[in-house]
Every structure is written in structure tokens, then in C-alpha cells.
Write a structure and sequence with these properties.
The chain contains five helices and four strands; from the N terminus they run αββαββααα. It has 194 residues and is mainly alpha-helical. It has a two-stranded antiparallel ribbon. Strands 3-4 form a two-stranded antiparallel ribbon. A hairpin with a 5-residue loop joins strand 3 and strand 4. Helix 2 runs antiparallel to helix 3 and helix 3 runs antiparallel to helix 4. The radius of gyration is 22 Å and the shape is elongated.
């Protein structure tokens, strides 16, 4: 079955675009608020703030958290996908039943694209949420302490979040690559046997 023939492919891609767009919009709107309306508020004096490596405490924490979430946003989804692929390759196939025009039930074998699309969506949401959380923390640290390093942390994470925006060609490419990986896992499992 071709990827474009998969049921609801375009609807799935559109839903993923809405999710990533909403995650991005939330950070951007908060960033605009921080930079315009809320900026210039009463911040604690720099002399009274504890520091880590020369940075104010929250800024240093936001930078550290930003690095951790950035790395995790690449590592965790890969682990999820690998586990999901192994589960799909080793699991039994589930068939799909649909009503025909005459009212009879027709059984269609489950397809791998239909199984991989939710896996792609899940790993995309997890990776995007990790980037979003780090960006929010950076903006919050900037709001409280006013250090540009916190704002830069948020900016980098928003840029990575935007780079994840799912377009149909990207999703197709991911599915093609992972269909091949799934076939490899099945071959490996078949050759080793029970």
C-alpha cells in the first residue's frame, strides 16, 4: 500500500501540524507578552541574586534545563520509535473490518503505514513538548531576571520546535525510512526464529 493511499494520511498530517503549531504559538505569544507588556517590571537587584557560573540562578537553571530538554527531544523519541517498531514487527497483525455498500462486512488486513502514523505523531508530540517546556522556562527566567542568555535559550528551543513542523513530504520520508526499518526487524526476527 502506498503511503498516500493510507486512510486519513492528509488528516493525520494536518492534525500534527495543528498540534505543533499550537505548541509553538503558546510559546511565541508568551514570548511577545514577556518582551512587550511584562518586560521592565520590578526585577531583583543583580547584587542580591545568587549566581551559577556567573549567570543569575534562574537563567543558569533555564540554560541547563534547555540543554537537557534539547538533547532529550532527540533521544527520547528515537527510543520510543525503536520500541514501537519492535512491537509492531513482533506483534500479530490486527485486521480492520469495514462495512461495504451492501451492508456486509469486509476484512482488510492491517497495514504498516496505519500503525506507523500514530508512532510518528506520538514521537513528534513528545519531542515538541520537550522543546516547548524548555522555551517556557527560558522565557520565565528572562521575565524574572532579564538576562539575555535566558531569552537566547528560549529562542533556540523555539527554532528547534519550528524545525519539527510536519509537512507531508517529511512525514512520507519518515514513513518510508521506518517501513524499511520495520522490514529489517521482521527479517531479523524471522531469520533468528523463536
Amino acid at each position: 500500500m502506498k503511503i498516500d493511499e493510507a486512510e486519513n494520511f492528509d488528516a493525520n498530517v494536518q492534525m500534527m501540524q495543528i498540534i505543533v503549531g499550537a505548541l509553538t504559538a503558546g510559546v511565541v505569544v508568551f514570548g511577545v507578552l514577556v518582551l512587550t507588556i511584562l518586560d521592565g517590571g520590578n526585577r531583583p537587584a543583580a547584587a542580591n541574586q545568587p549566581t551559577i557560573l556567573g549567570l543569575p540562578l534562574l537563567t543558569a537553571l533555564a540554560l541547563g534545563f534547555g540543554v537537557i530538554t534539547l538533547v532529550a527531544s532527540f533521544v527520547v523519541p528515537r527510543l520510543m520509535v525503536e520500541g514501537g517498531l519492535r512491537a509492531i514487527a513482533g506483534g500479530s497483525t490486527t485486521d480492520e473490518t469495514k462495512l461495504t455498500e451492501t451492508g456486509e462486512r469486509q476484512v482488510y488486513p492491517a497495514n504498516d503505514v496505519g500503525r506507523l502514523l500514530p508512532l510518528y505523531q506520538t514521537q513528534l508530540i513528545v519531542a515538541s513538548a520537550l522543546n516547548e517546556g524548555g522555551a517556557f522556562f527560558g522565557l520565565l527566567a528572562y521575565l524574572i531576571e532579564g538576562n539575555p542568555a535566558a531569552l537566547a535559550t528560549a529562542g533556540v528551543l523555539v527554532a528547534v520546535l519550528l524545525s519539527r513542523f510536519p509537512v507531508a513530504d517529511r512525514v512520507r520520508g519518515w514513513l518510508d525510512a521506518h517501513l524499511e526499518r520495520l522490514a529489517e526487524l521482521r527479517r531479523d526476527e524471522f531469520s533468528t526464529g523463536p
